[in-house]
C-alpha cells in the first residue's frame, strides 16, 4: 500500500482523518489503537496493517488472512466531542457497515450486503459468503472500530470454506488503495451526518439505510444469545437502538441486542 499517497488523499485540514499510519505487521490494529486512545490520541487516527498476527472479531474470535490479501485497519472516534450521547454509540459499528458496503459496492462493482450486527456479505457461486467483519471497542470516551475485509483471497486461502472475498465475487477491482480510500471517505461522510443529528439514527438516515442494505431482514433466523439461550423467528426490523427485532411464535416481537444470528431461510414477502 502507498501510505504516502493515501495519507495525502485522506488527511486534510477540517476533515475527520487526522493521522494515518500503515505498519507491515502487528498483532491487532484494534488493540494498538485502543492503547493509543487511552493515551489521548486524537479523533480521526487511522491504523492500517498489511498483516495481523492476532486479529480479533466479536467474542474474541480469531480473524486470519494472508499478508496483503485484504484491508485490516482500525479508526478512532470521539463522538462525545460532537455531543452524541453514549446510548447512541452502539450505532457506530452499524454506521461503519453501511458506509463500507456502499463504498465497496461502488468501487469494486460487487453487491455487498449487511448481516446484523457486524458482518459484510458477498455472493460467491450463488451463495452468501462473509468477507468482512467489524469490531467496536470502547476506550474511555473514545470508540475504536476495527475492520477486516477479504479482498484478493483465493479459495485455497480462505480461513473457512464458507468465507468469501471480493476477488471470488468477481470484483472489477482488487486494488486495495482506492478501496480503502473509498471506505474511509464514506465513513467520514456518514459519521459527519450522524454527528450533525447528535447520533439520531432516524434523522440522520442511518436506520433507514441500514435496513435497506441488511440481508438479515425478512429472513427466518436463529439468534444464539448469551447464556446458551436461543430464539427463532423472522427478523422484521432494526429498532431505534440498533437492536434486531424478531417476530417469534405467537406474534411476539422481541428485540435482540447481542448474539450470533444464523440465517435459516428467506420469508416470502406479500406483494
From TrEMBL:
Q: Which residues form the BPL/LPL catalytic domain?
A: 9-195
Q: Which domain of life is it from?
A: Bacteria
Q: Name one GO molecular function term.
A: ligase activity
Enzyme nomenclature, EC number:
6.3.4.15
What the entry lists under Pfam families is as follows:
BPL_C, BPL_LplA_LipB
Please tell me which top-level EC class this enzyme sits in.
ligase
UniProt keywords, alphabetically? Biotin, Ligase
What NCBIfam families does its record include? birA_ligase
Q: What is the designated name of this protein?
A: biotin--[biotin carboxyl-carrier protein] ligase
The species this protein belongs to is: Streptomyces yatensis
